[in-house]
Amino acid sequence: MGDTAEILKTTPLNALHKELGARMVPFAGYEMPVQYPAGILTEHKHTRAAAGLFDVSHMGQVKITGADPAKALEALVPGDIVALDVGKMRYTVLTNDAGGIMDDLMVNKRDRDLFVIVNAACKEQDIAHMRSHLKGCEVEYLEDRAMLALQGPAAVDVLSRLNSVMPAMSFGMGATLALGKYEAFVTRSGYTGEDGFEISLPADQAEEFARWLIAQPEVKPIGLGARDSLRLEAGLCLYGHDIDTTTTPIEAGLAWTISKRRREDGGYPGAAVVQKQLKDGVARKRVGIQPEGRAPAREGTEILNDKGEKIGVITSGGFGPSVDAPVAMGYVATDYAKAGTPLSLMVRGKPLPAKICTLPFITKRYAK
What is the 3-state secondary structure (H, E, C) of 19-59? Predict the structure, then answer.
């Protein structure tokens, strides 16, 4: 690990993570906290009950400016960016010519630009892709900014101590706000299925702000381990696992991200493939899977039908602390995608019973 650790990038909170006793691991080219001394189970449950602080500074923060950046970006994504109101955010994907997903991203429309958040492992290729295709636009990578996510039912109360406007923000809103002495771009969003906020601020202010947050009685630091189990319970995709260049938005169950206008007009890479799938259906679908018993089925586990034939594969799986049971997602042949369909999972060479279930595994509690 000695040599590896030296070439890993670090976030502005790296020293704080270590001070708090985090176990650090390589993730998307960064040294990141996977858990703190309390452990993944405690961190997971604390986020659902109160408020968890996540360091997401490894994500790529991008500003797109130009005469009409929303129209320009629509040439690369199937999402309806033009119709997005200023101060609102939209989830969409970058597609390739086969309709495959190059990355998933959040697009915020602001007065003078688009503020886009891309995945850490994809950000260099995403930025290069946007720079080469967004004619008449400037694509700026905001390397000098950190990002923190405060997630959980108490998040709004905590941030209201710094700015009383927080409760008035609805889910999917974004605004530049004063948080005490800090100026930040804040969105009411997140990756846990809970209410929460993502906060972009100057990197040199991130540690001081994070220390203020964890000094609040409701807030504990949360690592990548609980981040993964929280998003899995919420049925949210992880890029490179549940979605990638071999999966289309329709196979992935993301047709809801494509508006009627974009479905009809196309105009993005792979549009013909996506339009055909919307019309004719797909051969496989992303589904929720509930293993019976207590043994979790991990990524790569084969899914079998009642005849023992392989019909799919698990793409994310683990134990769901909030439901006190194993949970999983994966792709199965469409004939087997109906909720309640029995199947088997090959775990350590043994077929274990499971069934298809509707996603998410928990009730999402986003702000209205």
Answer: HCCCEEEEECCEEEEEECCCCHHHHHHHHHHCEEEEECCCC
